[in-house]
Amino acid sequence: MPALWTASEKLVLASTSATRLALLVSAGLSVETQNSNVDERLVEDAARSEKLDPPALAARLAAEKALAVSLRNPQRIVLGADQVLACGEKVFHKVADREAAKLQLQALSGKTHALHSAGALAIGGKVVESFVAIATLAMRPLSPEAIDLYLELAGPGVLHSVGVYHYEGLGVHLFDKVEGDHSTILGLPLLPLLSALRRLGCVSL
């Protein structure tokens, strides 16, 4: 039986994200995960002095994660990924508790925001491929009661999402209009990733 993944060793995903892992597996890639242990807030603080825009910030975060794991696995192909949510001039982050989640959804309610999803491939401690894709999501106006109901139904898992919603689940109810690839919304743009892997000769299709 022909193999889709042609590299000698599995792709290393520099993340413990179950969603990103599921996307890679669904595309038929041979993959394992390792935690990058990168402090995202420290990277953001350093990038702030450079006045990086959201797509550049997402790319920086993805690259730092890929490099951190690549230095531990110099012979492997390592994928780092990250996502930045921007609404107007404001960049949003993951929240710590339900009250903060409620405030974030109130801030996004009735507005259109952008998800900047980036990926970086590193080999031997060097980034060899980098890409960013953008999706725009128009959240419908939400009443306080609707926000409370959503958070109750969705459970604490939404705290792991930068937008405090799981678009692939109940979060789809929060939106009027979405533009962009589904995998970009989930935090790993598959089409540019697969193009990059083909350039590196890692996939046969």
Question: What does this protein structure show overall?
Answer:
With 205 residues, this protein is an alpha/beta fold. The protein has a single domain (11-199), classed as Maf protein (Alpha-Beta Complex). Helix content is 36%, strand content 25%. The chain is built from 7 helices and 7 strands, in the order βαβααββαββαβαα. It has helices at residues 18-26, 40-48, 54-72, 98-108, 144-154, 182-185, 190-199; strands at residues 11-13, 31-33, 77-87, 90-92, 112-123, 126-139, 175-179. Strands 1, 2, 3, 4, 5, 6 and 7 form a 7-stranded mixed β-sheet that branches. Strand 3 (77-87) and strand 4 (90-92) form a beta hairpin. The protein starts with 10 loop residues before the first strand and ends in a 6-residue tail after the last helix. The model has no long low-confidence stretch (mean pLDDT 94).
What is the fold's blueprint, element by element?
Elements: E1 11-13, H1 18-26, E2 31-33, H2 40-48, H3 54-72, E3 77-87, E4 90-92, H4 98-108, E5 112-123, E6 126-139, H5 144-154, E7 175-179, H6 182-185, H7 190-199
Parallel strand pairs: 1-2, 1-3
Antiparallel strand pairs: 3-4, 3-5, 5-6, 6-7
Helix pairs in contact: 2-3, 4-5
CATH architecture: Alpha-Beta Complex
Radius of gyration: 17 Å
Strand content: 15-25%
Q: What letter string, H or E per element, gives the SSE order? A: EHEHHEEHEEHEHH
Structural class: alpha/beta
The beta-strand count equals: 7
Domains, number:
1
Distance between the termini: 14 Å
Instruction: State the helix count.
Output: 7
Write down the oligomeric state.
single chain
In which range does the helix fraction lie? 25-40%
Outline: globular
What CATH first level would be assigned?
Alpha Beta
